[in-house]
């Protein structure tokens, strides 16, 4: 469908920044995408776009993987409510401050980043664990939730794509294994770690932000104003830290166990969507059990608290669902394939790798999915390796880094919504405050790939 396939994501992005309303933007983008699909197949039926949009939402929600993401997002609301209303968050903050583990902003930031790095098994689990753990600490030291969302979002995906002992690595290996390459898929993938400049630069910028205790651009403004959405409405009386720490430890440790279990004994082959859902459900059940066991609340009170927490996250859960729906619709429309064509066939060799990075970024930004970008661009990049003799690890790294870069900038990405959910930050605020940092890392990466291409390709 050529250039018209990029109209729906453009509609979403324009409405997001014009009306400051993500749900409306996603709805209009889905309607636009479905109308274009119908217009191509049968122009006379294009008026059925609203019906098709509803069915697209139903199809998206009926997918097992997507259903797990939605259920996980809902359960997070109950878990957050349990550990917050129990007084566990306040108690944990008091404990860490009292022990000197978190006595200033730099230590709080470092602790948050370390938590995100340690939980590298799955990106959603990384942002969720670090976000829940650090919320109270950020509030205590007057740091905005936007800053928390930036740290956890800009730590999780780069760490997952650099360590690769997770579902990310297994997925990319499965894509590479279908081709005859000059070296093994595993060696090429591990070699890409050293050339994944975007992930490396992003982590270094996060580390700088924490070590220097300095923020810039819209994030600096947010730090000064601390918008109402970032200020806790009330602080629960401190009780016991176990109400927070036990469920969180349960979630992290059981996630590892479920990854082994779903992968038949192999961690990297485990299902991330299944494991994070099972781990979150178990942590929520443990949190509920602790409240009853220690008679903090009655069963009726705990159930009310849980549903209240779910209700608080309903807008963000809706954004996650609509983001997934738009991604599926754009896949049928062919948006990703069109954007991939930006690479072209007649580029000078030294420009191919930088253009693959740009193509991955634009595709991920407009479709809201990094994994979908990998699935489309790797089949385009690998034949270039085979026919032109390009360095395999450099090409793969550019594709992976571009996918993450675009995802970090995109207001229609489900990862953006989950990070905002974990930090308790408004989605648009998170996008606005993270964008300049991602843009700096992306610019440095582009220069890095140009230099690397000149050295390695000539």
Automatic annotation (TrEMBL):
It comes from Alteromonas stellipolaris. Keywords: Cell membrane, Membrane, Transmembrane, Transmembrane helix. GO terms for cellular component: plasma membrane. The chain crosses the membrane at residues 69-97, 117-138, 150-176, 188-211, 243-263, 275-293, 305-326, 346-365, 377-405, 437-457. It is found in: Cell membrane. It comes from the Bacteria. Residues 171-453 form the Na+/H+ antiporter NhaC-like C-terminal domain. It is a multi-pass membrane protein. This is Na+/H+ antiporter NhaC family protein. The lineage of its organism: Bacteria, Pseudomonadati, Pseudomonadota, Gammaproteobacteria, Alteromonadales.
